[in-house]
User: Fold 2-octaprenyl-6-methoxyphenol hydroxylase from Rhodovulum bhavnagarense.
Amino acid sequence: MTDLSTDILISGGGVAGLTAAAAFGSAGFSVSCVDPAPPVTDETADGADLRTTAFLQPSLKVLKDAGLWDRLAPHATELQVMRIVDAGGKTPAPRVSRAFKASDVSDLPFGWNLPNWLLRREMVARLKELPNVTFHPGTGTASVLTRDVEARVTLTDGTRVRAKLLIAADGRNSPVREAVGIGAKTIRYGQKALAFAVTHPEPHNNVSTEIHRSGGPFTLVPLPDRDGRPCSAIVWMERGPEVLRLAALPEAEFNAEMTARSGALFGPLRLETRRTVWPIISQIAHRMYAERTALIAEAAHVVPPIGAQGLNMSLADIRVLLELSRAAPADIGNDGMLELYHRRRHPEVSARVAGIDILNRTSMRGERIARDLRAAGIAGLYGLPPVRKALMRAGMGVRLSA
Ligand SMILES: Cc1cc2nc3c(=O)[nH]c(=O)nc-3n(C[C@H](O)[C@H](O)[C@H](O)COP(=O)(O)OP(=O)(O)OC[C@H]3O[C@@H](n4cnc5c(N)ncnc54)[C@H](O)[C@@H]3O)c2cc1C
Assistant:
């Protein structure tokens, strides 16, 4: 690359950075997006991200406006029912179960589930359609210097970029966040998650199921059938050493253990992909902006994967940043605009990070009394129709979103 000037430089081409590039590009801004790690766009390739993302209702508009939804919709699985199960008794058998139907609160499904590797494939293809967007896989941000009127960024290949707005989408250890001197509060749980796909004999009927016992939730999220068999994505959270033990088990033993942990709700589960391991933390940046710089996605906030909030919060960051940029394009990246962005997002993000932290701690508890209280909570609280509807709306991001 030769030296360049752009409206927006996005540091990070993960799912959030690629979405931001498509969103700002579709709105007519000139955009450059850089990432030292080229995206892996094939499920079987080394390094493929085998997590899936359940996009909740408010994210749909962001994906549509970014010109992404038409590409993603044919691959998406609708989530019509959310089921919460407590299996905290002596055996892993389900003992309390509550199901919430999207149709009770909305004409639309709760959300739409898509594999992350496929998101990257379709997002990269969308960027190629946009003449005002350039994506530079293999090149990262090396250093950042900000001035009142622009951010000056040097890339790892020596290119110097001048941008009105620098968007940090470079993950939980964000080099840009560090370069602009924004601290973050981190909570460690000693917990990890396994993410993989399984097939099972019983159909999922578009029901997403979260099963609580100890160590964290075991969640099955519907995917399209695979070789004629019903298929689901699983996120299985446990204490770190237990996850490493499970990840190393021979396949037949692993299948038996996860079937038991699932309460056999869908019959015997069969592993269909590699098992990938993800560290679990909560994290929130002290501020969501610095001079000419906005933090989005995991650069700004990280939550345990409960209630499908992480990337959905990131899409809300993008929506607000884009709204402010479109309202006053001449002010893009100036202090007034970025202060507004911070004020609209930080309280909402803080509330969700705190709420998910409590849910995660509750799910991790292994003592008998704590488990029984949790079961009673699921049975009682979620059984009251007004409370249940309020929780459903909040979980879907309908009420709380900025
Ligand atoms: C098991 C699991 C399940 C989840 N399920 C859901 C779900 O159902 N719904 C949901 O909403 N969320 C979910 N999440 C959260 C979601 O996956 C994350 O929020 C999301 O993947 C993070 O995306 P990101 O783009 O912010 O970060 P990353 O994917 O970490 O991307 C950051 C990018 O920055 C790049 N980078 C690093 N250094 C530099 C540099 N110097 N210059 C430029 N780029 C750099 C990296 O190479 C990387 O590609 C889940 C998370 C986990 C762990």
About this structure: The first strand starts at residue 4 and ends at 11. The pocket of flavin-adenine dinucleotide is lined by residues 11-17, 34-37, 51, 53-54, 140-141, 169-171, 175, 193, 195, 235, 278, 297-298, 305, 308-312, 314 (CB under 6 Å). The chain has a mean pLDDT of 91. The radius of gyration is 21 Å.
